Amino acid sequence: MSQKKCPLNREQLEELTKQFPTPFHLYDEAAIRANARALKAAFAWNPGFKEYFAVKAAPNPYLMKILRSEGFGADCSSVPELLLSESVGLSGEEIIFTSNDTPAFEYQKAVDLGAIINLDDITHIDYLEEQIGLPELVCCRYNPGPLKGGNAIIGHPEEAKYGFTRPQLFEGYRMLRDKGVKRFGLHTMVASNELDAKYFIETAHLLFDLIKELSAELGITFEFINIGGGIGIPYKPEQEPVDLQTVGDGIRALYEKAGFTSLDVRMECGRMVTGPFGWLVSRVLHKKNTYKQYVGLDSCMTNLMRPGMYGAYHHVTVPGKENLPHDFVCDVTGSLCENNDKFAINRALPPVDIGDLVVIHDAGAHGHAMGFNYNGKLRSSELLLRENGEVVQIRRAETVEDYFATLNFAGLNNFKV
Amino acid sequence: MSQKKCPLNREQLEELTKQFPTPFHLYDEAAIRANARALKAAFAWNPGFKEYFAVKAAPNPYLMKILRSEGFGADCSSVPELLLSESVGLSGEEIIFTSNDTPAFEYQKAVDLGAIINLDDITHIDYLEEQIGLPELVCCRYNPGPLKGGNAIIGHPEEAKYGFTRPQLFEGYRMLRDKGVKRFGLHTMVASNELDAKYFIETAHLLFDLIKELSAELGITFEFINIGGGIGIPYKPEQEPVDLQTVGDGIRALYEKAGFTSLDVRMECGRMVTGPFGWLVSRVLHKKNTYKQYVGLDSCMTNLMRPGMYGAYHHVTVPGKENLPHDFVCDVTGSLCENNDKFAINRALPPVDIGDLVVIHDAGAHGHAMGFNYNGKLRSSELLLRENGEVVQIRRAETVEDYFATLNFAGLNNFKV
Fold this sequence. Notes:
Shape of chain A: globular
Radius of gyration of chain A: 23 Å
Oligomer: homodimer
CATH topology of the largest domain in chain A: TIM Barrel
Order of helices and strands of chain A: HEHEHEHEHEHEHEHEHEHEEHEEEEEEHH
Largest interface: A-B, 98 and 98 residues
Number of strands of chain A: 17
Strand content of chain A: 15-25%
CATH superfamily of the largest domain in chain A: Alanine racemase
């Protein structure tokens, strides 16, 4: 299988649960660092290369601090994400603020931090100028529309709410130039969870061509292109990860052919940075046998929304039973009062017993981050396996008090019905 | 249109936003009470009728206190929901605990409150007995499987994780009887958001027949049937609400024909109780025109997940512009960095201007309750329009501090990378 193996075996996980009861998300620092280095190595030919970690994938400052130490910046689209970046010492152009439908107070915080502002729409040029003032460096987000095919998750670019059209880009950069902006970047993001390396090379190609045209027409120089994120991960065993070296080499060939020398290549991946290196560890609470076989875990959609929300596949393993025949076909469910609260449907597993640990793979991105409190379900903790083998808690589990924090129970007494 | 009109007009809403900035959910107490009374009236023929409000739809104790004053109980499936019920003075058999894949500590809290335990699976008989002990009254959840067709949201019953099969019901009640349980109820829930009144009458029919058979075979008496929830609401203007009197009358006819006299009819609706009587009030922050027209609000999926999560239709109105021609076709978006963060797609609205208030209808159930914090987005406040015209805040908006509550920023300093 292509899934990253959980770094702790059954005995080690059982030992861990004595201190940290299931469910929890477990991240692997060594694997995150190795992957980060592989991405940097693939772009070592470009001295200004920078990956801005898409914070929404795993908004945990401990993970972000590790990524910062690997030279990664942060891609943010809200004030809480900017504050997380600030908390780990990121500042200035180590942060890119790629938001849409943005309120002024969010632009203000981004500008205060000196973050690169990536504008989503031509109308935001005047909005930003009026509300806060234009910074020296501005990036614009390009939406190629029907010129570029989409993929399943992001849909067709012409149906996406993001970005400038091509004519708007020309008009927008002209406005920015005429308003005194001196430094420029160009951004696009047209894929999500895409496994074909060619997609990212083509995206860079698109931006290289566009920069040439924009520079020629407007007499401006671009410091960087940001090809967005969207590098997928092999959620299914038969899938293969994107070969990062292929992406890097392919973009390099185009870069050199186009004669660029000082243009920086930037990315804002999230999923591929932490996704395969985080596991949701849970325990079998019940089994039931009605019209199908069910294995019920002590976790639910709150811990991992993707299967219930998108019908997404996540690989499931039963530690200690990896080598047994996988002939027990079941639905793996959570306890939420929603029938789509299933981690897996008709999945062939080894014989599962109540009390077994179950590991759900590729939960390191868009996992904990997307959890809701529907049905009064509480979000679980996050643990980190350090390089020295120690496991530390990097987020505590939610409590009932957290869940009730926005309610005034004292006021209820004076509420006459 | 069939949508319940927002009880405040543009001027009143503008006045309100001076004290409570958008976005917020606004609930209408008078409308909730009137609807609750209509439901009770439809079942007035059954002295033991009780509606247990499905707390997950709108887990706010202020709303629950109003519903309690109308004689409604609570349908819970987690400890936080049980605690909310307790906070408004509900106890004992005013609460039904309808959960699945249930951990022992949740059963314990339900038993401590004296709630009716509704078992989801035959294995839970032994589990409950071993972990806590069996209460005097037990209800079992029936899943009719392929005998009964499903609907779009709940899927086919045979694919649903819930309930006992028919043979398991016979075996289960026999076990319960032999273990000394004295009082019995029977539950099913096979629809969600269903607008056909016949569906609920048929469901009661199914349970009436089954009770006769179970009673005859096992020599036990049932105190109640619980036909579950699932009464839909007309999200689309061309849809009509379920006529509650038709449901009540239809079930009455079957009840009398079957010769029941002391059997109570119970329900656990959520959506139809608060859904049409809550509105998400938001404001237009931006407009953009690329490959489509976009209207960007100051709210997002976090405030209302259903359109982004299910592609669900929610009616959108622009207060003060209800009577203008609706010829501006646009997508109504939020600011989340997800392309599915759209409240409406290709919707015909009146000409919309930046700064306009926008009302999203039918947000009173599964609205605030389902919100996530993805992308660092914070959940908004809930307001209640009292019967006397006063507006009170019944939940404050989340703050950045709430969002960061489970993180230890102090520990970050000692976290060596």
